[in-house]
Task: structure prediction
Amino acid sequence: MKFFVDTANIDDIRDLASTGLLDGVTTNPTLIAQSGKKFIPLIEEICDIVSGPVSAEVAATDYETMRKEAEILRKIADNVAVKVPLTPAGLKVCKELSDGGTMVNVTLCFSPAQAILAAKAGAAFVSPFVGRLDDVSMDGLSLIADIVTIYENYTDFTTEVLVASVRHPLHIVESAKMGAHVATCPPDVIRKLYNHPLTDKGLAAFVEDWKKTGQSIL
Ligand code: G3P
Result:
């Protein structure tokens, strides 16, 4: 499973990239607003840090403007994935960009039917939002299961399932069990994956016992 970080915070991106476990970055207009930085230079900076896909989202909702914005975004770097909303206009842009060899991430996916459309439009990634479905008492993870099953039925569907709106480690673990290709996670959720009290307890015991040997490996 690939890990993307869902943030526009450069410090977090640098820190997580240094682990060697980060495969990409996703941003959205909310995250850009939180960063307080200029959009295009920020995406350039992120693309310099991370060699994997970096999602940069269009701001417009109409086809003509979205297409022009997408043209600017795709030229920022080879690893930009242009992010478009799951609307008729967004999928039209997706099809055109994908046919031209640009990675597209179709966002705001909330149903299997929408995910089928994204795959038919040639998206590199579809982003189903598990947390936001959970928030309205729907089962976000069952959407992931449905999309993975559907995509496996068709060899011509090459779209990767990018689990988005991840809120906690179990969203990642359960999605991995289903075979989702990618999880994009807030930085704190990625960091939580390391944690287990028995690891801390076991390590403390090993450190104490090693001291008793009086030895040094170096
Ligand atoms: O970037 C899209 C998605 O991951 C947003 O998540 O937490 O705002 O629902 P959230």
